[in-house]
Amino acid sequence: MAGKSPRSWTDSIEETLIAVILGAMTLLTFANVAARYMGSNILWALEATSFLFAWLVLLGASYAVKKRAHLGVDVAVDMLPPGPRRILGLAAAAACIVYAALLLKGGWDYWANFANLPATEGRWFPLGLEERVREKGWYEVNDIDMPAFLNPFFANWFNEGEPYEKIPRLIPYFVMPLSMTLLLLRFVQAALAIARGAQDRLIASHEAEDMIDAARPARPAAED
After folding, report:
1. Beta carbons of 183 and 164 less than 8 angstroms apart
2. CA-derived radius of gyration, the chain
3. What is the CB neighbour count within 10 angstroms for residue 55?
4. What span, in angstroms and rounded, lies between the C-alpha atoms of 120 and 130?
């Protein structure tokens, strides 16, 4: 049996992560509510849920590009013939690629120092890596305890061997470069699809129209 293509596993990244995150948020919130009814409390639940929600939203952005689910106004686009419509789609994709690349640079620059890595030089475009690293690997979150089995690795790599009491911020903040990399990848894939003629625009969601169609009463079947 032939192995799966590289695209098949990259396409499943968002689905897997989103499903796991959504399930974890649901279970954690339920457990915390149940604990409060019993007079207890999961101290770290609120902070963990906040981080999970941030992961869900940021990863969901790239997933929506993949599913062509972002909302957009396409009245003018529908008025154009196929050729100009594709050109306009490519122009929109190019603008989104530039935008995602800037977000990726910003996401990396924010996260890198928390992982004791150099950020990139340049205000708008990466001009290389900074020579000096403002190490913030010792920064911890407020409430979430560090799992014991993770401490040896992270302590040796990011905290000069000192064990963490709480998880380091580099773990939850990693979603920023990760999600922006996926967002850039999805915009590039969309641009290639437009160039090949597989689609003619970045978005295809018509949520308002779908809701109207769903609410419209079904027509009675024609009588014989």
Report:
1. no
2. 23
3. 23
4. 6
Find the length of the chain.
Answer: 224
Separation of alpha carbons 75 and 11, rounded Å: 30
- The per-residue pLDDT for 206 is 57
3-class DSSP assignment, residue 86 = helix
Look up the pTM and report it. 0.82
What mean pLDDT is predicted for residues 45-54?
94
Structure tokens at 180: 């922006």
Q: Which two tokens stand for residue 84?
A: 């100009």
In this predicted model, what pLDDT tens digit does every residue of 50-100 receive, in sequence order?
A: 999 999 999 999 888 888 877 777 777 778 888 888 888 899 999 999 999
Q: Kindly state the tokens that stand for 160.
A: 């000069």
Determine the 3-state secondary structure of 20 from DSSP.
Answer: helix
What is the 3-state composition of the chain as percent helix, strand, coil, each rounded to the nearest 5? 60, 5, 35
> How many angstroms separate the CA atoms of 115 and 222, rounded?
67
**Are 96 and 183 spatial neighbours (Cβ–Cβ below 8 Å)?**
no
Cα separation, 192 vs 180, whole angstroms: 18
Residues 140-166 pLDDT 10s = 999 999 999 999 999 999 998 999 999
Instruction: Determine contact, residues 147/29, Cβ cutoff 8 Å.
Output: no
Q: How far apart are CA 3 and CA 10, in angstroms?
A: 14
